[in-house]
Amino acid sequence: MTYFDHNATAPVMREARDAWLAATEHVPGNPSSPHQPGLRAGAALREAREKLAHFLGCNAEDIIWTSGATEANNTVIHHFAKALDAQTEIWISAIEHPCVHESAKHYFGKRARLIPVTHDGVADLDWLTAEMADRRPGLVGVMAANNETGVMQPWREIQAICRSYEVPFFMDAVQWLGKMPARELGQCEFVSGAAHKFGGPRGVGFLKIPHKAKIIPLLVGGKQEAGHRAGTENVPIILAMMAALEAREKQMGRGEHVLRGVWRENFEKGFLKDLPGAAIVGRSAPRLWNTVAALMPGGGQWRWLSKLDKAGYAVSTGSACTTGKEEPSHVLAAMHIKPADAHRVLRFSSGWETTENDWDSLAKALLNIQEEFQAP
Ligand code: PLP
Predict the structure, then answer these.
(1) Which of 107, 159, 204, 241 has its CA 20 to 30 A from that of 173?
(2) Helix 36-56 to helix 235-253 angle, to the nearest 10 degrees?
(3) What is the helix (H) or strand (E) element at residue 251, kind and residue range?
(4) Where are the domains of the chain?
(5) Which fold has domain 14-251?
(6) Which residue has the CA at smallest separation from atom 5 of ligand 1?
(7) Distance, CA 135 to ligand 1 centroid (Å)?
(8) Which CATH number fits domain 2-9+255-374: 3.40.50.300, 3.90.1150.10, 3.20.20.140, 3.40.50.1220?
């Protein structure tokens, strides 16, 4: 099977697996315990925290380990729900992951306003600037890159706008991290990430919080993570996550992601030429090097998906979390893509191990399927 669904989850890389095995064998203690095995686990955790802080450009104490991005994102929204007064709004982009949308709706109801996006799926900076001049929300949340389209958001500009009005900025960096360099992400007040999108294990992530901030915990019942998140830290998977991130940052340091962007670009050019009626969602916006949200010609997305599956290609209709749902994706709806067109969208998301040959063979498979559809 050729795997083109890395935005849903990516295979665990060797470095991460080795780090997990080594820590499981050699770091058996609970990092909160006072004896030597506990102290060793605590030291390993501290080292991992320092490493992540170094990549993000923040302080080690600003990192909270979590079970993934869903927990990290819920922690942020829950904190502001408790900390803000009952009138204050929060503003989140219309294309956030459901774990941000749903928790904002859950805690804030109508006080969670949606920041619109342009037709290309980029958060509307003009809207934000104009609204902010008028009134201030308690929090602004915009993701770094969208999971369905790969469209990268102008987060540095958004951070600057928020800072000038002293509004905290929260960024879900799940799809950015491990695909694009992490440096500077730590300048945002709140940043979340999850290991399984870049070659680490599932079930582990983090939340970066403002320096010296006190966060109202979502999980209570223990003093771990400076009282910000109760529960024994899973040291082996945290170390595995950091091994994966370190390896990805090294690859990016060598510019390996740039070449992969060229392969994706070549695929898109051929795709648009060979399949009349096809289009790429968000094509004129800056996008992650690995993602293609493709409007397929003729035939709905499920027909394409099952043909590709049979031909040996794992692709997606968009977010893994909405797969199988009948309603069109909220991301595509926010980009004013008509429901009928939204049902034609397939997502191809490559990974670090995807080769140029894999892209070529996907292109050929699409062409074959198109011919099958057209056969009398
Ligand atoms: N945020 C984004 C942008 C995502 O793509 C995902 C997963 O698809 C999540 C959050 C949730 O991550 P997890 O399922 O690891 O908690």
Answers:
(1) 107
(2) 30
(3) helix 235-253
(4) 2-9+255-374, 14-251
(5) Aspartate Aminotransferase; domain 2 (3.40.640)
(6) 147
(7) 30
(8) 3.90.1150.10
pLDDT in the model for residue 328: 86
What was the pLDDT predicted at 376? Answer: 85
Please tell me the residue having the least CA distance from ligand 1 atom 8. 8
User: Residue 54 Cα, ligand 1 centroid: separation in angstroms?
Assistant: 23
First to last CA, the chain: 29
Q: How far is the CA of 207 from the centre of ligand 1 (A)?
A: 13
H/E segment holding residue 93:
strand 90-93
Ligand 1 site, residue 70, Cβ cutoff 6 A = yes
pTM (predicted TM-score): 0.97
Ligand 1 atom closest to the Cα of residue 9 is: 8
Residues of the chain with pLDDT under 70: 319-326
What pLDDT is attached to residue 324? 53
pLDDT of residue 322: 47
Which residue has the CA at smallest separation from atom 7 of ligand 1? Answer: 8
| 8 Cα nearest atom in ligand 1 | 8
Identify the residue whose C-alpha is closest to ligand 1 atom 10.
Answer: 69
Round to whole Å and give the CA distance between 100 and 355. Answer: 33
Q: Three-state SS for 202? A: coil
The DSSP letter of residue 150 is -
3-state secondary structure of 117: strand
The DSSP result for 40-60, as a single string, is: HHHHHHHHHHHHHHHHHTS-G
Helix (H) or strand (E) holding 98: helix 98-108
Residue 321 CA: nearest ligand 1 atom is: 8
- Tokens representing 264 are 């994706």
pLDDT (tens digit, 9 = 90+) per residue, 119-173?
Answer: 999 999 999 999 999 999 999 999 999 999 999 999 999 999 999 999 999 999 9
User: Which pLDDT belongs to residue 326?
Assistant: 62
Q: Please state the atom number of ligand 1 nearest to the C-alpha of residue 194.
A: 15
